[in-house]
From TrEMBL:
Keywords: Transferase
Coiled coil: none
Protein name: L-aminoadipate-semialdehyde dehydrogenase-phosphopantetheinyl transferase
Gene for this chain: aasdhppt
Gene Ontology CC annotations of this record: cytosol
Amino acid sequence: MEGGVRWAFNTRRWRPSAGEWAAALALVQAEEKERIGRFMFRRDAKAALAGRLLLRKLAADILGIPWGTVALERTEHGRPCLVAAQAVAVGAVDFNVSHQGAYAVLAAAAGMAVGVDVMEVRPPPGRSIDIFLASMRRQLSLVEWDHVRAFPDEHRRLAAFYRLWCLKEAVIKARGDGLTFALQRLSLTPAGPTPTPPPGPLTLDTTLAIDGVHDPAWYFQETMLDPTHPVAVALHCPALASAPPPHNAPRATHFTELTYDQLTSSATPLTPLDLGAGQAFMAKAEAP
């Protein structure tokens, strides 16, 4: 797994029929199928299912666990993980998923903690951008707030805010302690070029301070999946921080966008085909 794995799947473009949805649901564990079926909107159900399929593809294609035997659970803070026996078998591999807007994404790496987050940059409904940003001010450090305010255009300020929020969420997810860790304790200093969609380069120079103290063991890889979806990968590896150059940073890895056929290329059904679940899915609205 040199360089790690970065996958993205566009759930907005995925418009399954009732039969196609039933077939996709049959590829995950029964408890996952039940949880996904409780979502009120097709948008949210598709995002949740895509996240589980990304995890199973990683386990089957990269970690060597047959699709039908992959067993997933959640940590006490809700982070998806392999059951203990399978986690021990694959060794020091960490992975994380995220979904928002049009995308579900996965990042994985060996020998370090991994967090990933994707956001959709969109103007807040019912209020101005600057009023929205002011309401979020307490979630940012002084360094971060100065970075946001430095942009003369409100839409660029909004994009800068979402970039920072995406980075913060990626750190929290790599730490694995969920809502018990306050976002205000993190202060990110964006450096290097503003992330751009491929084929632009990854942005790698952002740094992190926790409680005001710079932590060199954190590394960031940022890009844009499209003009409105920033994605950030946070990697925590103290061993790399003490290594000599050029071995003191993770290998930069771009995201690969998968088709549905690629996402499920190694899949095998785990539960019987449930056409009723497909019909229930089609009866729901796509979004609020």
